[in-house]
Amino acid sequence: MIRDYFRVLVVDLATGKGNVAKIEGRNEFAGGSGLGALLFDIYGHAQRPWDDPDQPLIFSIGALTGLFPLMSKTVCSFKSPYHDQFAESHAGGRSALAIRFADYDAIVIKGRAPRLSCLSIGMSHLEVKDVQFLAGKDVFSTGKLLRRMFPGSGHRSILRIGPAGESLSGMACINADTYRHFGRLGSGGVMGSKNLKGIVIQGDGSFALPDNKDYSKVFDEVYEKMTGTDMMSKYHNLGTAANLNVLNELKSLPWRNLQATKDDDIAGITGEKFADDTLLRNAACAGCPVGCIHLGFVREKFMEQNQYMYRQVAYDYEPIFATGSMLGVTDAFHVLAIMDEIEKVGLDVMSGGVALAWATEAFEKGIITEKETIVPLAFGDAEGYKKAVNYLGQAENEFYAALSKGTLVAAKKYGGEDFACVLGQEMAGYATGETFYVAESLGFRHSHLDSGGYAWDQKNDKKDVDAVCDFLIGDETGRAFITSMVACLFGRGVYNDEQLSACLKSVGYTEIAENMDTIGERVRAMRWKVRFDTGYDPDAISIPKRYNEVTTWKGKTDPEYLAALKKEYGNRIRNLVSKEALIRLGLDKYEKN
Amino acid sequence: MKTLTAAHMERCIGCHSCSFACARQVHKLLSWNTAGIRISSSGGLSTGFVAKVCLACDPAPCAVACPTQAMSPRKKGGGVIHKKDLCIRCGKCAEACPVDAIYLDLKKRPFVCIHCGRCVKFCPHECLEMRESESTKRAKKEDAL
After folding, report:
1. Other CB atoms closer than 10 Å to residue A414's CB: what's the count?
2. What is the ipTM of this complex?
3. How far apart are CA A140 and CA A150, in angstroms?
4. Partner of A87 for a Cys bridge, out of A126, A185, A356, A416, CB 3.0 to 4.6 A?
5. Which residue has the higher pLDDT, A124 or A369?
6. Cα A318 from Cα A129, distance rounded (Å)
7. Chain A interface mutation, best of B11, B12, B20, highest count of A Cβ atoms under 10 Å
8. Does the distance separating the beta carbons of A203 and B32 come in below 8 Å?
9. What pLDDT is recorded for position A100?
10. Is the CB of B17 inside 8 Å of chain A's CB atoms?
């Protein structure tokens, strides 16, 4: 199974047939992010729109997936309905191991099915099945029905979309195994455009282990660090929800559409509050002993005489920010109830929450009325948001259809661009300062994890454009390598260069181990190259005025410094794909498709 | 004799570390299937997890069903021993198992728990433990009477 090329399943939904392609480049691109960009370069069409049937939807895993703990993520690469540029989204769950044990390094899905369909694959089967009867079904009932239709319980992954994906929303996610998501930049809309309701991946193969003693020894070392030390305790204790209190104290938690960065009402939605009052149990991605998935519960009375129903909802820091502080909702159970509706309709929770926060302020200012929003919107009113989430997911009217394409799309049409909290896409929950605003706005995934910008802000208050850009550019290289492996970024404390090198060598990937920095740089440049090919322009990205009004522990935003930082970071990103850089990294041979 | 017991599956987070440990250490394979213990959701991920593992039946129906004596009962305490070189891969053992604890791979090779306990230390939530089997306890009681 250790091979020096990529084994890729290419499926055409139009015909229901596929083929297994042997793609060279293992030692140059490693897998994951690198493989996704490489495959988009091969199979994608930079100049055609995102919903062209020939555009590929790509799922890729890493060289160590299945072989070591926390190598448990899948990268989804696609042309985004949000901005019609190349994009990437990552998810845990079971898909990475299911792809590994089906004996593929990546799945490329092309074409459009004639009717709503489900793709089922495994080591020894490939089928495209008509599921028109699932049209309009929510994510939960879709999952349950697909579960009954296809075999392999326990060792398969079920990816599916809800009504938001079917309505081609730029905010539609792909739900991965109920509790994880390919959330950002609208991958669910791409599935919708392909008439693809679900993907069932059965990991039914088994493989010989590397023929040496090192593998078991290195495995045990890594496993011990993951489970026998405090290195991962943050993630399995309170989980990322612990950040709510921390960021609120730092005046960096967005409240009510970022009208404030701190509020005493935090007490109702802290990590401790969620754990003490709502936490039912923990769960894990397949292949990860940490168990960072925190499942809270929603309990609702649906009939007199004490008739209740309950559902389990996975919470994390950013979903709580998006449906809690950002919407002024300060009751943990109300926050989970909004998340639950977002889950069902299949929206990216951060995009959906932040978009509704903008809509609420626009409603309060009289820019839009109930004619647009159907239900009155008010900060703190969870019942209103539960309804609005459904209208947004189903693109119920002209207003919600515009909003589902992005907050700035709606703001351009109705007004209110100044207070749209959009940093490339609807913001992540870190109002930490200029470094983060710029890093997220221009960053590849518009994610706080593109680089450590949010962490820089929390530790530094000096305004030094060059120092910040040096840091951001330097930091991104290692992250590009890690996301090519595809390790969970929670594990990056354990998976330092030395550990990764030992892991790679123990299973025979010596050449990758000896070139990690170069591969990181190459993958990063390849991703940016494909992104530029599809229309990325850092100067075209604006940072709304609301960010100039924000106050953090460092004081108010400095607009001049923000502008200078944005300009220089844009230049640095451009330099990553200069002719010299591409030649140095051996990428000049890859022509735009 | 002690046997492996999935005693606290309500604590299971579904990480599959036990299956990987068994496949890696006992069968020298990379897999979440070719193992003596397999983890499955009990009805979708919202319902928690179950372990498909040998319950150490005594007598063992899988051994009774085996036409070539490749699957034979352990001397005492329940559980079976599978001898690969005697196996004709007919699948009768898996058919006979009442709790789906024997896995047949794509080549119809059976994989069953040998109650070695090597998976136990890889469970981060202490769901698994080695316990004296019911059959051993019964035998001890009978000896004492």
Report:
1. 16
2. 0.92
3. 16
4. A185
5. A369
6. 35
7. B20
8. yes
9. 97
10. yes
Rounded CA-CA distance B16/A291 in Å is 11
Determine the pLDDT at residue A495.
Answer: 94
Chain A residues with CB under 8 Å of B16 CB are: 97, 286-287
Helix, coil or strand: residue A154: coil
pLDDT at A443: 96
Under the banding of pLDDT at 50, 70 and 90, the label for residue B134 is: confident
Q: Does B15 touch chain A (CB under 8 A)?
A: yes
Taking a contact as any Cβ pair under 8 Å apart, which residues of chain A between 123 and 152 contact chain B? 123-124, 143-144, 147
Taking the C-alpha atoms of residue B104 and residue B34, their distance in angstroms, rounded to an integer, is: 8
Report how many Cβ contacts below 8 Å link chain A to chain B: 91
B9 touches chain A (CB under 8 A): no
B134 CB near a chain A CB, below 8 Å? no
Give pLDDT, residue A437. 97
Q: Structure tokens of A564?
A: 């200078």
Given a contact cutoff of 8 angstroms between Cβ atoms, the answer to whether B17 and B38 are in contact is no
Query: In this complex, which of A101, A179, A286 lies closest to B31 when CB atoms are compared?
Result: A101
Q: What residue of A is the nearest CA neighbor of B25?
A: A216
C-alpha closest to that of A545 among A421, A411, A430, A433: A421
Chain A residues near residue B23 by CB distance under 8 angstroms: 206
* Interface-testing mutation among A206, A227, A281, A313, with chain B (most B C-beta atoms within 10 A): A206
Mean pLDDT of A460-476: 94
- Which pLDDT tens digit goes with each residue over A473-499? 999 999 999 999 999 988 888 999 999
- To 5 degrees, how large is the angle CA A464–CA A466–CA A471? 95
Beta bridge partners of A87: A78
pLDDT band, residue A151 (cuts 50/70/90): confident
Taking the CB of residue A313, how many other CB atoms lie within 10 A of it?
25
Please enumerate in sequence order all residues whose Cβ is within 8 A of that of A586, keeping only pairs 6 or more positions apart, or say none.
A28, A522
A-chain residues within 8 Å CB-CB of B34? 206
Whole-number average pLDDT of chain B: 92
Flag whether residue A556 sits within 8 Å of chain B, measured between CB atoms. no
State the best of B10, B12, B16 to mutate against chain A, taking most chain A CBs within 10 Å. B16
In this predicted structure, what is the pLDDT of residue A501?
Answer: 97
> Is-contact A94 A105, C-beta < 8 A?
no
Range in A100-109, A266-275, A482-491 the model is least confident about: A482-491
Tens of pLDDT along A183-233? Answer: 999 999 999 999 999 999 999 899 999 888 899 999 999 999 999 888 888
CB contact (8 A) between residue A209 and residue B24: yes
Question: What is the full DSSP assignment across A372-402?
Answer: HHSS---TT-HHHHHHHHHHHHTT-SHHHHH
A298 to chain B, any CB pair closer than 8 A? The answer is no
- Residue B28: which of A97, A209, A223 has the nearest Cβ? A209
Residues whose CB falls within 8 Å of the CB of residue B25, separated by 6 or more in sequence, listed in order: A216, B118
